Amino acid sequence: MYNHILVPISFDDDRDAAGAIDVARALAGAEGRITLLHVMEEIPGYAISYMPPAYLTETRQAIEAELATLAADLPKGTAKVIQGHSGRSIVEYADAEGVDCIVIAGHRPGMQDLLLGSTATQVVRHATCAVHVIR
């Protein structure tokens, strides 16, 4: 069993957050803790000027509320929202917080992933702890 499991949560339709959370719950056992993490990507300056002034604040609050609801059902569950590049931020957070396992939902790779790489691929390549990818 693991002591601290990180579950990155993406609210994209093709991600199975429930499956990743179920696996994390099983891997944590009775003593492990689970952190649900959402990374808010930076919005380019040219795009942010077209959005309502409160857009980022309201979006962050909605995400924090949804994560808190998900974490409330987990033993020793916590929720965290950070800002940055998804792949790098997940790995950096795991290193800084002493995470010993990451459970991440993946998706069927498309052509864009062959050129840029998916978040799950970046996490698998760069994480210093165990990583479980759920499809």
Describe what you observe in this structure.
- The chain is of the alpha/beta class and 135 residues long.
- The chain has a single domain, classed as Rossmann fold.
- A 5-stranded parallel beta sheet has the order 3-2-1-4-5, with helices on both faces.
- α4 runs parallel beside α6.
- The longest helix has 18 residues.
- The two termini are 21 Å apart.
- The model has no long low-confidence stretch (mean pLDDT 89).
What's the SSE blueprint?
Elements: E1 4-8, H1 17-28, E2 33-40, H2 45-48, H3 55-72, E3 77-83, H4 86-97, E4 101-105, H5 111-116, H6 119-126, E5 130-134
Parallel strand pairs: 1-2, 1-4, 2-3, 4-5
Helix pairs in contact: 4-6
CATH topology: Rossmann fold
Shape: globular
Oligomerization: single chain
- Backbone structural class: alpha/beta
**Low-pLDDT ranges:** none
Tell me the total number of β-strands.
5
CATH level-two architecture: 3-Layer(aba) Sandwich
Number of helices: 6
Major sheet: arrangement of strands: 3-2-1-4-5
Gap between N and C termini: 21 Å
- Taken in chain order, the helices and strands follow as EHEHHEHEHHE
Largest β sheet strand count, sense and barrel closure: 5 strands, parallel
Mean of pLDDT: 89
CATH superfamily: HUPs
Q: Which radius of gyration do the C-alpha atoms yield?
A: 15 Å
By CATH reckoning, the class would read Alpha Beta
Strand content: 15-25%
- In total, how many domains does the architecture comprise? 1
Helix share of residues? 40-55%
